[in-house]
Amino acid sequence: MLLLYICSSKIHHFCDLCNKAFEGGKIDDHPNHHGDSLEFPGIFIQRDFISPEEELEICQQIYQSPFVESQSGRRKQDYGPKVNFKRKKIKAGGFTGLPNFSKMLYKRMKSVDILKDFEPVEQCNLEYVPERGSSIDPHFDDFWVWGERLVTLNLGSDTVLCMTLSENSDVSVHVPLFNRSLIVVYGPARHIWMHGIHRENITRKRLAITFRELSAEFQPGGNKETEGQNLLDIALTFEGISIGSLKL
Ligand SMILES: O=C(O)CCC(=O)C(=O)O
Ligand SMILES: [Fe+2]
After folding, report:
1. 142-177 pLDDT per residue, tens
2. Helices within the chain (DSSP H only)
3. Where is the Fe2OG dioxygenase domain (predicted)?
4. Whose CA is nearest to atom 1 of ligand 1?
5. How far is the CA of 207 from the centre of ligand 1 (A)?
6. What ranges do the domains of the chain cover?
7. Is the N or C terminus of the chain more exposed, i.e. has fewer CB atoms within 10 Å?
8. Considering the entire predicted model, what is its pTM?
């Protein structure tokens, strides 16, 4: 069966300036919101996290490494451990660390209150383009290996993250992903709501850099603490080459 990923009539638009989602309207209505509002905890947005010059530099760095084809018209570059989600196995394998250009992003993230103790162990760069109809179906990021906060830096163009309660939910919340902004997804937005991106909302090339931290099991005090520390030591060398590069 072909499941068409379309949005319900009850679209709410999340406003990062009000920290609420408003029924109907448009993504850029602020301050003229109307319609019922919904509390929508678990989204933090830092607009202009990087400058246009930094964006250009980061994009140039990204395109010096090869991409591999991914699902739904996306291409990706992975820097992280090899994870078998079904068997719950994680291996450092060919992981050589996060890429060099992410060192400055890591440092800057530390200056954001909600991320001051954020220790990323994985980076995935995704490329979306309208020509390939790139999108991502609604999903939860894995809960066994990945921790509370999902952090994404948005590059290239604006788009919208669509949050739904299930595949065919009749309520959706559209969250703006501004170019050069950083978004942190946590709490209910991470655990209760699924997230995805519609192909209609990819109108120009977009690059998303997602950083993930390890779950509590791999953190100090957890029973996989040593494994976690080892992965983190590798990640934070910032000497990584993408997994796809190894196969060439
Ligand atoms: O492209 C994005 O902003 C979201 C990507 C995502 O949800 C994922 O890689 O799990
Ligand atoms: Fe995701």
Report:
1. 999 999 999 999 999 999 999 999 777 788 999 999
2. 52-62, 102-110, 187-191, 225-235, 243-247
3. 120-215
4. 208
5. 10
6. 10-26+35-240
7. N
8. 0.95
